[in-house]
Amino acid sequence: MARRSMVRRFFRAAAWVFLTLVLVFVSLLLLFRYVNPPTSAFIVSYSIANPDQEVRQQWVSYSDISPWMSLAVVASEDQRFPDHWGVDFAAIRKALAEYHAGEGLRGASTITQQTAKNLFLWNGRSFVRKAMEAGLALAVDGLWPKRRILEVYLNIAEFGPGIYGVEAASRVYFGIPARQLSAQQAARLAAVLPNPNVLSVNSPSPYVRDRVFWIRGQMDQLSGLQYLKGL
Question: First-to-last CA distance in the chain?
Answer without folding.
Answer: 58
